[in-house]
Amino acid sequence: MSQLLTIDDIDAARREAGISIFELCAATKLSQTNYSRAKSGKSKMRPANLFALARTLTGISGNLDDMARHGQGFFLVYMPVAALVAREINVDMALVRREVASKRATLSADWMQAARVREFATYLMNTGLGIPQAALARVHNVTPAAICQMMRKVENMRDDPAIEAMLERLEQDLRVDI
Q1: Domain definitions of the chain by residue range
Q2: What number is the average pLDDT over the span 30-47?
Q3: How far is the C-alpha of 82 from the C-alpha of 10, rounded, in Å?
Q4: pLDDT value of position 76
Protein backbone atom coordinates (compact mmCIF):
# COMPACT_ATOMS: atom_id res chain seq x y z
CA MET A 1 0.00 0.00 0.00
CA SER A 2 1.59 3.22 -1.09
CA GLN A 3 -0.16 5.62 1.25
CA LEU A 4 -1.57 5.79 4.74
CA LEU A 5 -4.65 3.69 5.31
CA THR A 6 -7.84 5.73 5.07
CA ILE A 7 -11.49 5.14 5.88
CA ASP A 8 -12.03 4.82 2.12
CA ASP A 9 -9.53 1.94 2.02
CA ILE A 10 -11.35 0.28 4.91
CA ASP A 11 -14.73 0.80 3.23
CA ALA A 12 -13.50 -0.63 -0.09
CA ALA A 13 -12.07 -3.69 1.71
CA ARG A 14 -15.33 -4.05 3.65
CA ARG A 15 -17.40 -4.03 0.47
CA GLU A 16 -15.01 -6.44 -1.25
CA ALA A 17 -15.31 -8.83 1.71
CA GLY A 18 -19.10 -8.57 1.64
CA ILE A 19 -19.30 -7.29 5.20
CA SER A 20 -21.98 -4.78 6.15
CA ILE A 21 -21.13 -1.59 8.02
CA PHE A 22 -23.23 -2.90 10.90
CA GLU A 23 -21.25 -6.18 11.06
CA LEU A 24 -17.89 -4.43 10.85
CA CYS A 25 -18.76 -1.85 13.49
CA ALA A 26 -20.28 -4.45 15.81
CA ALA A 27 -17.22 -6.70 15.53
CA THR A 28 -14.89 -3.75 16.09
CA LYS A 29 -16.99 -2.22 18.89
CA LEU A 30 -17.05 1.09 17.03
CA SER A 31 -20.26 3.02 16.60
CA GLN A 32 -21.81 3.18 13.16
CA THR A 33 -22.19 6.92 13.67
CA ASN A 34 -18.41 7.38 14.02
CA TYR A 35 -17.83 5.22 10.94
CA SER A 36 -20.40 7.15 8.89
CA ARG A 37 -19.10 10.54 10.04
CA ALA A 38 -15.57 9.56 9.03
CA LYS A 39 -16.76 8.15 5.71
CA SER A 40 -18.66 11.36 4.89
CA GLY A 41 -15.69 13.53 5.88
CA LYS A 42 -17.48 15.15 8.84
CA SER A 43 -14.81 13.87 11.21
CA LYS A 44 -11.42 12.18 11.07
CA MET A 45 -10.96 8.68 12.38
CA ARG A 46 -8.13 8.12 14.83
CA PRO A 47 -5.34 5.80 13.65
CA ALA A 48 -6.15 3.41 16.52
CA ASN A 49 -9.71 3.04 15.22
CA LEU A 50 -8.46 2.50 11.67
CA PHE A 51 -6.15 -0.15 13.06
CA ALA A 52 -9.05 -1.84 14.89
CA LEU A 53 -11.14 -1.84 11.72
CA ALA A 54 -8.24 -3.24 9.70
CA ARG A 55 -7.68 -6.00 12.25
CA THR A 56 -11.33 -6.95 12.07
CA LEU A 57 -11.42 -6.87 8.27
CA THR A 58 -8.35 -8.99 7.79
CA GLY A 59 -9.81 -11.63 10.06
CA ILE A 60 -7.05 -11.38 12.59
CA SER A 61 -8.30 -13.37 15.51
CA GLY A 62 -4.88 -14.65 16.48
CA ASN A 63 -3.60 -15.65 13.04
CA LEU A 64 -1.39 -12.70 12.18
CA ASP A 65 1.50 -15.05 11.44
CA ASP A 66 -0.35 -16.68 8.52
CA MET A 67 -1.30 -13.27 7.15
CA ALA A 68 2.32 -12.10 7.35
CA ARG A 69 3.60 -15.39 5.96
CA HIS A 70 1.54 -14.89 2.81
CA GLY A 71 1.67 -11.08 2.71
CA GLN A 72 -2.13 -10.96 2.50
CA GLY A 73 -3.51 -7.88 4.13
CA PHE A 74 -0.28 -7.32 6.04
CA PHE A 75 0.02 -3.66 5.10
CA LEU A 76 -3.61 -3.10 6.02
CA VAL A 77 -2.43 -3.69 9.60
CA TYR A 78 1.14 -2.37 9.27
CA MET A 79 0.21 1.10 8.02
CA PRO A 80 -1.99 1.98 11.04
CA VAL A 81 0.78 0.76 13.36
CA ALA A 82 3.26 2.95 11.45
CA ALA A 83 0.79 5.85 11.68
CA LEU A 84 0.54 5.42 15.47
CA VAL A 85 4.34 5.46 15.73
CA ALA A 86 4.67 8.46 13.39
CA ARG A 87 2.14 10.43 15.42
CA GLU A 88 3.89 9.50 18.66
CA ILE A 89 7.32 10.67 17.46
CA ASN A 90 6.00 13.62 15.42
CA VAL A 91 6.93 12.40 11.94
CA ASP A 92 4.64 13.10 9.01
CA MET A 93 3.37 9.87 7.40
CA ALA A 94 3.83 11.50 3.98
CA LEU A 95 7.55 11.52 4.74
CA VAL A 96 7.45 7.83 5.67
CA ARG A 97 5.65 6.97 2.42
CA ARG A 98 8.03 9.12 0.36
CA GLU A 99 11.30 7.85 1.83
CA VAL A 100 11.61 4.32 0.45
CA ALA A 101 13.42 1.86 2.73
CA SER A 102 15.46 0.32 -0.08
CA LYS A 103 16.97 3.70 -0.94
CA ARG A 104 19.21 3.44 2.14
CA ALA A 105 19.86 7.19 2.12
CA THR A 106 21.38 7.24 5.58
CA LEU A 107 22.77 10.75 5.12
CA SER A 108 19.26 12.15 4.62
CA ALA A 109 17.57 13.36 7.82
CA ASP A 110 14.15 12.66 6.26
CA TRP A 111 15.12 9.10 5.36
CA MET A 112 16.44 8.53 8.89
CA GLN A 113 13.16 9.74 10.44
CA ALA A 114 11.18 7.45 8.14
CA ALA A 115 13.52 4.58 9.00
CA ARG A 116 12.94 5.17 12.71
CA VAL A 117 9.16 4.92 12.17
CA ARG A 118 9.62 1.69 10.19
CA GLU A 119 11.89 0.24 12.89
CA PHE A 120 9.47 0.99 15.71
CA ALA A 121 6.45 -0.21 13.69
CA THR A 122 8.16 -3.47 12.79
CA TYR A 123 9.25 -3.93 16.39
CA LEU A 124 5.66 -3.39 17.56
CA MET A 125 4.32 -5.83 14.99
CA ASN A 126 6.56 -8.42 16.64
CA THR A 127 6.21 -7.52 20.32
CA GLY A 128 2.71 -6.05 20.37
CA LEU A 129 1.00 -8.29 17.84
CA GLY A 130 3.13 -11.41 18.05
CA ILE A 131 4.12 -11.69 14.40
CA PRO A 132 7.28 -13.83 14.26
CA GLN A 133 10.45 -12.18 13.03
CA ALA A 134 10.78 -14.69 10.18
CA ALA A 135 7.33 -13.72 8.87
CA LEU A 136 8.22 -10.02 9.14
CA ALA A 137 11.41 -10.67 7.16
CA ARG A 138 9.44 -12.36 4.37
CA VAL A 139 6.94 -9.51 4.10
CA HIS A 140 9.60 -6.78 4.22
CA ASN A 141 11.75 -8.73 1.75
CA VAL A 142 14.81 -8.68 4.00
CA THR A 143 16.77 -11.41 5.71
CA PRO A 144 15.74 -12.67 9.14
CA ALA A 145 19.11 -11.36 10.35
CA ALA A 146 18.11 -7.82 9.27
CA ILE A 147 14.91 -8.06 11.31
CA CYS A 148 16.85 -9.48 14.26
CA GLN A 149 19.29 -6.57 14.02
CA MET A 150 16.37 -4.11 13.91
CA MET A 151 14.81 -5.72 17.01
CA ARG A 152 18.13 -5.55 18.85
CA LYS A 153 18.55 -1.87 17.89
CA VAL A 154 15.09 -0.97 19.24
CA GLU A 155 15.66 -3.06 22.39
CA ASN A 156 18.87 -1.09 23.00
CA MET A 157 16.96 2.18 22.54
CA ARG A 158 14.59 1.07 25.33
CA ASP A 159 17.29 2.07 27.82
CA ASP A 160 16.10 5.63 27.22
CA PRO A 161 13.15 6.16 29.64
CA ALA A 162 11.23 8.27 27.09
CA ILE A 163 11.47 5.57 24.41
CA GLU A 164 10.60 2.88 26.94
CA ALA A 165 7.47 4.80 27.98
CA MET A 166 6.46 5.42 24.36
CA LEU A 167 6.85 1.77 23.37
CA GLU A 168 4.96 0.63 26.47
CA ARG A 169 2.05 2.95 25.55
CA LEU A 170 1.99 1.75 21.96
CA GLU A 171 2.27 -1.92 22.94
CA GLN A 172 -0.64 -1.41 25.33
CA ASP A 173 -2.69 0.18 22.53
CA LEU A 174 -2.02 -2.83 20.32
CA ARG A 175 -3.00 -5.31 23.03
CA VAL A 176 -6.54 -3.98 23.32
CA ASP A 177 -9.01 -6.80 22.68
CA ILE A 178 -11.29 -6.12 19.78
Answers
A1: 7-174
A2: 87
A3: 16
A4: 66
